[in-house]
Amino acid sequence: MGKELAFNHLVARRTFEEADDALGYDLTKLCFEGPDDQLRLTEITQPAILTVSIAAARVLAEAGIVPSFVAGHSLGEYSAHVAAGTLSFADAVRTVRNRGKYMQEAVPVGIGAMAAILALGIEKIHEACAEAVIEFPGQVCEPANINSPGQVVISGSKQAVERAAELCKHKGAKRAVMLPVSAPSIARSCSRARPPRCRSQRPYFQCSEIPVLCNVEAVPVSDAAKSRETLIRQVTGAVQWKASMRVLIAQGATQFLEAGPGSVLTGLLPSDRQVQPCSTLKTRLHCKKPKPISQTE
């Protein structure tokens, strides 16, 4: 994850080194070499994805690409705040490490689950989640990521989520796919994942010049206090990604660029004549392999 990016761009390689220093362990080696079972653990996955995303964003910044708005899906909202200047990268990578740790402690491996529901209305998805919870008293299940008109991710207790996925199929969903996660990223079951407010661990927030679309409200945020508050609420709130993209389009955004380890968000953009095709880092750099950086640089 991110190995080629770091090999070809000095600013990306330095981003990985900065992450290693901030975390106190060799995240770079885990990203480049694995093992995969460690990389899949939430407290490792979250800083790894953040680091790759910021490395990509810095490569784009070097190329002179400056966004009018930034947005990040769930964990990606931290990357968005770093790109906007709300948070330092070192503070953010330590915070998401702790975020992942608290989430894993709140929902141990094998207890929680997530499932992607395709082509089913949100009302029927809510119905399926409610019915599943009735069948499994004491468990939780609810929509976590409202990604697009055709995709909603549900999250919660493993048995309830599996049952809700089955019910969604019966209610007409095109597909219901269980997702490989070690802890459900957003659900009431993660309410205990909110970190203790220890002043020495609190990251420093500042007002940003570039607005960040917050996940829980789907509104642009630039204020430091508001940024902190919405990130705290995000741990247990639903990601309003579909609404966020509509807000950006209403604000006049016509070009979207995805910077990160994948291209999932590219496929979630609404089909809109006003929106040009979304591009990823690789396509934005015209798919040309940059000149490698020598080991002495």
Please characterize this protein's 3D structure.
44% of the residues lie in helices and 12% in strands. The strands form three sheets. Strands 3-4-2-5 form a four-stranded antiparallel beta sheet. It has a three-stranded mixed beta sheet with strand order 1-6-7. By secondary structure, the chain is α/β, with parallel strands linked by helices. The model is unreliable at 196-200 and 285-297 (pLDDT under 50).
Quick take:
By secondary structure, the protein is α/β, with parallel strands linked by helices.
What distinguishing features does this structure have?
297 residues, alpha/beta, four-stranded antiparallel sheet, three-stranded mixed sheet, 12 helices, 9 strands, 12% strand, disordered C terminus
